[in-house]
């Protein structure tokens, strides 16, 4: 029960990596607020967590819409009084209308930078005052290996994830002496509904089958599963990780060995 008596907000937790992190936090005893666009999926998770004896606040929200961050934060803070752990996981994937920069959609660029970078900034800004007052807090960003390298036909995604790492490092520097840690997880290709779109697109673009292309993506010869990412989030959220801040951890099957 590494997170017993802790409260957490995990954005984008109705499926994929966010769902896996939320499940792992609940299993470790955290009281948790979950957000996403699917009422049905969130309600199923809430019931599951309540069955574990975990208080869970389910908040249906579309974070592409301006002003929603305020509502989500207010509801989560009202439910728990304060938030110890913020996981900025919600985001848009690179499979959304991939094109070269010369043909890229300006509207998609604006939306993806808002969701992937501005929304984590806004949530972090909401979380920090009470964390600073209590001299304790954990902020975790779900970034990407593409926050460290470029991505063909994915300019907005790569730019937003590079920016997210810059935000994470700045927050870490500003809060390091106040009992707060700020870190990022940088997954490689993870088998999610969002990543499926990108893999299918690239396989077709390169004239390969999905199975053949998947096997070439990482050194271990496969994509990761979301539940393989969650244990790192649990550790970074725990009190045991008090001396780790400003770090961007690759969890990518050996895709980027740096």
Write the topology of this structure:
Layout: E1 7-10, H1 16-27, E2 31-36, H2 39-51, E3 56-60, H3 68-80, E4 85-88, H4 106-134, E5 137-142, H5 155-175, E6 180-187, H6 193-206, H7 210-215, H8 230-237, E7 248-251
Parallel strand pairs: 1-2, 1-4, 2-3, 4-5, 5-6, 6-7
Rg from C-alpha positions? 18 Å
**First CA to last CA: what distance?**
32 Å
Output the structural class.
alpha/beta
**Mean pLDDT across every amino acid position:** 96
CATH superfamily of the largest domain: NAD(P)-binding Rossmann-like Domain
Relative helix content: 40-55%
Which residues form runs of ≥5 with pLDDT under 50?
none
Helical run tally = 8
Based on the coordinates given, report the CATH architecture of the largest domain.
Answer: 3-Layer(aba) Sandwich
Q: What is the CATH fold-level name of the largest domain?
A: Rossmann fold
Question: Rough shape?
Answer: globular
How do the helices and strands follow one another from N- to C-terminus? EHEHEHEHEHEHHHE
- The share of residues in extended strands comes to 5-15%
- The biggest beta sheet, please? 7 strands, parallel
Number of distinct beta strands: 7
List the strand order in the largest sheet: 3-2-1-4-5-6-7
Structure summarized in a few sentences:
With about 260 residues, this protein is of the alpha/beta class. The chain is built from 8 helices and 7 strands. It folds into 2 domains: about 200 residues, Rossmann fold (3-Layer(aba) Sandwich), CATH 3.40.50; about 35 residues, no CATH class.
């Amino acid at each position: 029960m590494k997170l017993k008596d802790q409260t957490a907000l995990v954005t984008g937790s109705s499926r994929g990596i966010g769902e896996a992190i939320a499940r792992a936090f609940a299993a470790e005893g955290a009281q948790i607020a979950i957000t996403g666009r699917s009422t049905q999926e969130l309600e199923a998770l809430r019931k599951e967590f309540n069955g574990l004896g975990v208080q869970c606040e389910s908040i249906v929200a579309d974070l592409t819409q301006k002003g929603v961050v305020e509502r989500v934060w207010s509801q989560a803070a009202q439910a728990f009084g304060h938030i110890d752990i913020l996981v900025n996981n919600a985001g848009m994937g690179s499979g959304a209308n991939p094109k070269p920069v010369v043909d890229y959609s300006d509207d998609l660029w604006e939306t993806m930078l808002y969701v992937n970078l501005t929304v984590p900034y806004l949530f972090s800004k909401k979380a920090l005052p009470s964390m600073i007052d209590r001299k304790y807090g954990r902020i975790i960003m779900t970034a990407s290996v593409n926050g460290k390298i470029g991505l063909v036909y994915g300019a907005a995604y790569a730019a937003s994830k590079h920016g997210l790492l810059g935000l994470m490092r700045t927050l870490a520097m500003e809060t390091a002496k106040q009992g707060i840690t700020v870190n990022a997880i940088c997954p490689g290709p993870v088998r999610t509904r969002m990543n499926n779109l990108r893999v299918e697109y690239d396989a077709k673009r390169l004239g390969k089958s999905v199975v053949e292309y998947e096997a070439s993506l990482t050194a271990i010869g496969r994509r990761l599963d979301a539940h393989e990412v969650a244990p790192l989030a649990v550790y970074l959220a725990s009190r045991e990780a008090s001396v780790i801040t400003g770090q961007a951890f690759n969890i990518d099957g050996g895709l980027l060995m740096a």
